[in-house]
Design brief:
It is a single chain. Helix content is 33%, strand content 23%. The chain is built from 11 helices and 18 strands. Strands 1, 2, 8, 9, 10, 11, 17 and 18 form an 8-stranded mixed sheet that branches. The protein has an 8-stranded mixed sheet with strand order 5-6-4-13-14-15-12-16, with helices on both faces. A two-stranded antiparallel sheet has the order 3-7. β13 (273-276) and β14 form a beta hairpin. The two termini are 40 Å apart.
Length: 425
């Protein structure tokens, strides 16, 4: 309800048409890809099953920050090398800068917040882990992060009864995600891309010269295809992704606007993005209009009853961390799918030998910045504007299959049980 209208035509696809590149998915990745291709003068059409930004891009916390992986940096270094890991970190920083540049260059009013984010130790035992992380970030990436004692947290308006210390980074900022998605859509259309909402892909056939994509309204023949559907990738349509992705739920609630005295009573007055040190983390921030956004990972039932049950779980966690706001009305609750890969890092690249099918995918719940950057990167790789070796090898390794893929929902349930146990220790 708070989003600006799109004010641009995105009619359902109809007829029998051709194009150079078809982009499947109208979120941050697909819109960024379409924008880049159109700016290069490539004939591009985008097909979105719902409205623009319908998936996770329109229902997330708006955290434009470092992230997008669940593989630890130490494991990443052991697997890919220190040089590749440093390149990946640079790519993530570039992603945050690209979001800011898009806002400025295309005149997108996405309610950009103050720069910075803070990790909060949710147990006393995690305090030394934050100090170790501070040292690691400095020596590995040259990143300066500020350690915050409980007194520092209180002084900076970041107080909570369950927070024992913090680690503050200057990188990143909050945005209104749907405003951003719609702003990217308008920019892509101005550049010459043709966007089609309500155009679900229902059949995909490969030909000798390209790909025949069928929607309820017609058929589109494209020489190249970019799949940008992340946690909403249909494996019955896209065989290239079959058994390679694990969707997971992320949920968010938002309060009514909180008065300044209410914020002061809790001790939380900062606009910084924040998240706690749990593996099943909570993430939260104060919005520009005084509302408070609180999100969490967990829950494996995507049905409406499952959503109602997790609504209660998330509300309970919110009240425990911010007890002064127990009586504040919760006005909004929504859920969306994030996407995990087997290797726990994103993937960017071609999926077939003739390099006609491309994807950028699997941001592990942190796709605002990385989805934007990856959409541009995959388009530049397709058109050879960017060579593959200019993107970190962390992002271009083979997109591996999950072993025994039919058991992926059980993997998730088991992981959540383990994470819940670890978070309590």
């Amino acid at each position: 309800a708070s989003a600006d209208p799109l004010n641009a035509a995105t009619p359902p696809f109809t007829g029998n048409e051709t194009c150079e590149v078809a982009v499947i998915g109208g979120g941050f990745t697909g819109l960024s890809a379409a924008l880049e291709l159109a700016q290069q003068g490539v004939e591009v059409r985008l097909l979105e099953a719902g409205h623009i930004g319908w998936g996770a891009s329109g229902r997330n916390g708006g955290f434009a920050c470092i992230g997008s992986h669940k593989l630890s940096y130490t494991s990443m270094i052991a697997t890919f090398s220190l040089e590749a890991t440093r390149a990946f970190y640079r790519n993530m920083r570039e992603a945050v800068d690209l979001v800011r540049d898009n806002l400025d260059h295309h005149g997108i009013d996405a309610w950009a917040s103050a720069s910075g984010e803070v990790t909060l130790a949710h147990l006393p035992g995690r305090v030394e882990e934050l100090r170790a992380e501070q040292d690691f970030l400095k020596h590995t990436f040259g990143e300066d992060a500020e350690f915050l004692s409980p007194g520092d947290l209180e002084a900076q308006g970041l107080r909570g009864p369950g927070f024992h210390a913090g680690l503050k980074s200057a990188v990143g900022f909050g945005i209104h995600p749907l405003n951003y998605a719609r702003g990217l859509a308008r920019a892509a259309i101005r550049a010459g891309a043709r966007l089609h909402a309500d155009s679900r892909l229902i059949r995909w056939e490969e030909t000798a010269t390209g790909h025949l994509l069928t929607t309820p309204g017609g058929t589109l023949t494209a020489r190249h295809v970019i799949i940008a559907t992340n946690g909403y990738t249909p494996e019955d349509i896209s065989a290239y992704h079959r058994s390679r992705l694990l969707p997971a739920l992320s949920s968010i609630l938002v309060t009514r606007p909180l008065s300044l005295p209410e914020r002061q009573a809790q001790g939380w007055t900062s606009p910084l993005m924040a998240f706690d040190s749990r593996k099943l983390l909570h993430y939260f921030r104060l919005l520009p209009d005084g509302r408070f956004l609180f999100g969490g990972r967990g829950g494996t039932d995507a049905s409406d009853p499952g959503g109602e049950a997790y609504h209660h779980v998330l509300t309970k966690a919110f009240h425990e961390l911010f007890p002064a706001w127990r009586e504040a009305e919760i006005t909004h609750f929504w859920r969306g799918f994030v996407c995990l890969s087997y290797d726990l890092v994103p993937f960017i690249g071609a999926l077939d030998e003739r390099q006609s099918v491309w994807t950028a995918i699997a941001y592990h719940g942190n796709g605002v910045a990385m989805g934007t950057w990856s959409g541009r990167a995959v388009s530049r790789m397709l058109t050879k504007k960017t060579a593959r070796d200019q993107v970190s090898p962390v992002l271009t390794r083979r997109l591996a299959k999950f072993p025994l893929p039919a058991f992926r929902p059980l993997y998730l349930k088991g992981a959540y049980l383990w994470y819940g146990w670890a978070d309590a220790r």
